[in-house]
Write a structure and sequence with these properties.
Layout (H helix, E strand, L loop, with lengths): L4 E3 L5 E5 L2 E5 L14 E5 L3 E4 L5 H5 L21 H14 L2 E2 L2 E6 L3 H9 L30 H4 L28 E7 L20 E2 L2 E2 L1 E4 L15 E4 L8 E2 L3 E4 L1
Parallel strand pairs: 8-13
Antiparallel strand pairs: 1-2, 2-5, 3-4, 5-14, 6-7, 7-14, 8-11, 9-10, 11-12
Length: 256
C-alpha cells in the first residue's frame, strides 16, 4: 500500500510513515535511566499513524461515551485509560475491517514507531520550530510554584488540551506529538531502552510494577509538561486503569 494519506469517514486522517533508519533515546551521565541509552532503529514495515491525537468527535463516532474532562469535538479525547483505549480500538477495527480495500488492523503504536515518527528524521534531543508550545517552554509548568500538579497549578489556571487544528506539525505532517496529551503505546513500561526491539516491534516481557500494578508506556508528554521534558524521548508508565486529563491516544494502522 503506497497511499501517503488516508481519510476515514469519521474524520481520522492516517499518514504513512516512511521506512528508514533513525534513533530513539539519548545518552548522558545526568539523564535518568528511562531515557537511555540512545539506540539505532530500522523501520522496514508499512504503518500509518493518525495525523493528530484522536479527538472527542472521532472517539464518539463509533458509539462510545466520551470520558473527557474537557469534552470538545475538536480537542483530543482525554482521561482515557489504556484499557478503554484498547476497547475503543476493538470497535474501530470492527467498523473498518478494510481501509481503501486493504485488510488491516488498528492498534496502539509501539514506542519505537512513536519516537521514530515524532522525530521525522531529526536526531537532536529536542524538537525545533516545527513544534509550538505557545510560551509554555519559558515558564513553569502550570504557572504555579509546584511543578507537575495538574489540579492545583494548571487546570485551575485555565490549562487544557488545545484544538488539534492549532497544533503544529513535524516534517512528516504529524500534529501535536509533544505537549498536548500523553499518548498510550503498545509496550510494557520498562525503565531503559536496552531491550527495545530495533525493528519497531512491541517489547516483550513484563512492565515495571508500581503499587502492585503493571505499568505500560506512554509517550509525548501532555499540556502541563515541564519545559525540560519537551523532548522526543520523554516517557512514562501508567497502569491499565489509571487516567486523568493528561491521558489521550493516537492510533497506528497497518495491512495484515
Amino acid at each position: 500500500m503506497t497511499d501517503d494519506k488516508i481519510k476515514l469517514d469519521n474524520g481520522i486522517i492516517l499518514l504513512r510513515i516512511p521506512p528508514g533508519s533513525g534513533i530513539i533515546g539519548v545518552n548522558g551521565i545526568f539523564q535518568p535511566a528511562r531515557n537511555k541509552p540512545k539506540i539505532d532503529v530500522e523501520i522496514s514495515h508499512t504503518y500509518y499513524l493518525s495525523e493528530t491525537p484522536i479527538t472527542s468527535q472521532q472517539w464518539k463516532s463509533i458509539g462510545m461515551r466520551d470520558p473527557s474532562r474537557f469534552s470538545d469535538a475538536v480537542t483530543p479525547v482525554e482521561s482515557v485509560t489504556r484499557r478503554l483505549a484498547l476497547a475503543w480500538i476493538v470497535k474501530l477495527n470492527k467498523k473498518y475491517p478494510t481501509v481503501n480495500g486493504i485488510r488491516g488492523e488498528f492498534r496502539l503504536p509501539t514506542e519505537v514507531e512513536w519516537e521514530y515518527a515524532a522525530r521525522a528524521g531529526d536526531r537532536s534531543k529536542k524538537p525545533g520550530r516545527d513544534y509550538d508550545f505557545l510560551g509554555m517552554n519559558v515558564g513553569k509548568r502550570g504557572g504555579g510554584m509546584v511543578q507537575g500538579s495538574l489540579e492545583a497549578n494548571f487546570i485551575a489556571a485555565g490549562g487544557k488540551p488545545r484544538p488539534v487544528a492549532n497544533l503544529s506539525a513535524n516534517a512528516w505532517g504529524l500534529k501535536g506529538m509533544i505537549g498536548d496529551v500523553a499518548e498510550h503505546c503498545a509496550d510494557p513500561y520498562i525503565e531503559t531502552n536496552s531491550s527495545t526491539p530495533r525493528d519497531g516491534s512491541v517489547r516483550k516481557g513484563r512492565g515495571n510494577m508500581f503499587h502492585g500494578k503493571e505499568m505500560f508506556a506512554q509517550r509525548g508528554g501532555s499540556f502541563d509538561i515541564n519545559p525540560k521534558d519537551m523532548t522526543y524521548y520523554w516517557k512514562a508508565g501508567v497502569s491499565d486503569d489509571d487516567a486523568d486529563a493528561r491521558d489521550g491516544m493516537r492510533i497506528a494502522w497497518g495491512p495484515i
